[in-house]
Structure to design on (627 residues):
């Protein structure tokens, strides 16, 4: 068992790390801005017309807030799904919800493009919002199908398999649409698929953060049933919980978080699957009373870190975030899991 | 299928208003729905009572419907028809939480989690009590530590459940059921996968729960010889609605045990109370 000291150290260091990474994200970018200007801007002391003021408030701040919020949202959804389905491989991609989002966007960009709606190309302002709506609608559509299915079949494995199948089905439709679309539209769609935290305005990013935090607080109410589900569905029933109802609630919460994140940033790989594993291994616990807040903190640290790395090349365009999360994250997870194995065996 | 032909009472009539009766099963039909039109029913008309302070062992071959009956009694699996009464309350009219305060279970389900400690697991036994989110109260903590004491697993409290032996795991699941503080405990094959001394330890524990802690216990098992030693009552279950209830001695003497289990040259020796190869005369 992990010592209490170790656990409280974790909950002190991680918030500090988040603040540090957050500030680094505001400070570092293709344009050099001094630390003094960063702090001035945050204190609202700077001249509104100053370039640094505009860059930070209109670009870097919303980007950092979005990165953090989406990291938190995806990580929480990953944890809820892994517990609900009692499956360590469950994550945002398995229920087909992010595939649903890409279907929405594909219909918008690819089909819309070929039907003469010129939203594509660089995805201008109006196009951007339309893409968000399309992605959200697509994700919600798949989410509703999954909820409907889970109402019919109680069995978690069946729901999981159906979710994966819906994912394949949707991807196949998207693939077909890609095949028949113009290269310009295709380019726009692929760019969306690479993910980006920099498509949101300040207001949007703050809204995403608030909504995410509300949902996170809501999920904190479910510590007991989540812990009960770790023993399996039948034991959870015997502990007095309505498992079918809980299953629907958790799919709904995590589906909503995935839809929200994917709509504004495109599909972000890896975070949702990995963060719960990192949290469990570091804290050596499955107790959701610790795991939920831990996952929030690690999710924020990881996405802020990845966002910083994606800006490292220093040019106008940053690296695609989807690639960074996988390249940075996958080795971390492999290391963490091997380390965890050795500790639990030894 | 016509149910009426199964209505011949199995020599036992339910005592409808016995104070001693903790669980009453009426015209219970167990099984499961494969699809809307396809229903597999295992037993069509079970009528039986469980009295306070009994240790009942359910015996029967695989597929006889023992586990299904056990899970039907706690509404983990819905029964196809009939009624189950806890005291005078119908199971169908009780909430999940209310049921969880009346009956605890130990199942054969494996727990895959690698980090939960024995304490975490026994702690879930207290979940039916207290609020949806609430932390464990001091009385909960008391009940949990008492449960560890009863099963003699104080030394396992902080151990990771996953790292325990099968016998230790079974003790922890039993402690969880004890912490749940219900008058009735149902156990599905509590002695499976456990070595011989371990089996005796578990059954001794169960007997002690009945004698010293006012529990009533219904379990399924394939360890027939042990069950005959420890159980106050046997439920013999077979396919095609075979269901018999009785005391171990009566059932042995009347040859019911032989009837149900003897096969392929193996017979139950009434004198030694164990299964042997049939001697050629």
């Amino acid at each position: 068992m992990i010592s209490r000291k170790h656990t409280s150290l974790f909950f002190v260091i991680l918030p500090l790390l988040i603040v540090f990474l957050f500030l680094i994200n505001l400070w570092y970018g293709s344009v050099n801005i001094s630390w003094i200007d960063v702090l001035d801007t945050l204190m609202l002391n700077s001249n509104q017309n100053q370039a640094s003021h505009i860059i930070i408030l209109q670009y870097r701040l919303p980007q950092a807030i979005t990165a953090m919020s989406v990291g938190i949202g995806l990580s929480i959804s990953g944890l809820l799904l892994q517990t609900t389905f009692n499956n360590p491989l469950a994550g945002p991609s398995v229920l087909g919800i992010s595939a649903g989002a890409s279907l929405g966007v594909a219909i918008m960009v690819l089909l819309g493009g070929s039907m003469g709606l010129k939203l594509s190309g660089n995805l201008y302002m109006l196009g951007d919002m339309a893409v968000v709506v399309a992605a959200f609608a697509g994700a919600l559509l798949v989410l509703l199908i999954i909820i409907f299915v889970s109402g019919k079949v109680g069995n978690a494995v069946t729901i999981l398999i159906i979710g994966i199948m819906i994912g394949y089905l949707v991807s196949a439709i998207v693939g077909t649409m890609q095949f028949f679309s113009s290269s310009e539209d295709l380019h726009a769609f692929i760019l969306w698929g690479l993910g980006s935290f920099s498509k949101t305005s300040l207001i949007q990013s703050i809204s995403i953060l608030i909504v995410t935090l509300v949902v996170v607080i809501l999920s904190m109410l479910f510590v007991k049933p989540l812990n009960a589900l770790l023993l399996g569905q039948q034991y959870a029933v015997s502990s007095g919980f309505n498992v079918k109802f809980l299953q629907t609630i958790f799919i709904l919460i995590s589906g909503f978080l995935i839809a929200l994140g994917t709509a504004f940033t495109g599909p972000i790989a890896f975070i949702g699957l990995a963060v719960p594993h990192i949290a469990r291994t570091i804290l050596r616990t499955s107790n959701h009373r610790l795991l939920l807040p831990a996952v929030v903190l690690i999710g924020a640290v990881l996405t802020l870190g990845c966002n910083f790395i994606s800006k490292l090349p220093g040019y106008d365009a940053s690296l695609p975030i989807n690639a960074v999360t996988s390249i940075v994250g996958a080795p971390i997870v492999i290391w963490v899991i091997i380390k965890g194995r050795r500790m639990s065996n030894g | 299928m016509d149910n009426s032909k199964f209505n011949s009472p199995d020599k036992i009539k339910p005592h409808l208003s016995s104070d001693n009766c903790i669980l009453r099963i009426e015209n219970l039909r167990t099984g499961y729905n494969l699809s809307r039109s396809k229903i597999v029913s295992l037993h069509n008309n079970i009528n039986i009572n469980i009295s306070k302070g009994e240790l009942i062992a359910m015996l029967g071959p695989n597929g006889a419907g023992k586990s299904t009956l056990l899970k039907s009694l706690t509404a983990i699996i819905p029964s196809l028809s009939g009624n189950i009464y806890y005291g005078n309350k119908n199971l169908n009219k009780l909430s999940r939480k209310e049921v969880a305060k009346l009956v605890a279970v130990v199942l054969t389900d494996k727990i895959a989690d690698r980090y939960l400690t024995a304490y975490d697991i026994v702690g879930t036994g207290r979940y039916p009590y207290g609020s949806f989110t609430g932390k464990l109260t001091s009385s909960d903590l008391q009940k949990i530590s008492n449960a560890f004491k009863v099963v003699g697993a104080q030394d396992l409290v902080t151990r990771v459940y996953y790292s325990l032996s099968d016998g230790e795991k079974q003790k922890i699941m039993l402690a969880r059921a004890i912490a749940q503080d219900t008058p009735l405990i149902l156990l599905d094959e509590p002695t499976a996968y456990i070595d011989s001394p371990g089996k005796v330890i578990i059954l001794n524990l169960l007997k002690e729960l009945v004698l010293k802690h006012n529990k009533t216990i219904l379990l399924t098992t394939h360890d027939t010889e042990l069950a005959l030693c420890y159980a106050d009552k046997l439920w013999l279950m077979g396919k095609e609605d075979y269901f018999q209830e009785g005391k171990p001695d009566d059932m042995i003497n009347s040859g019911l045990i032989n009837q149900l289990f003897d096969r392929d040259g193996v017979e139950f020796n009434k004198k030694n109370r164990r299964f042997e190869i049939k001697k050629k005369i």
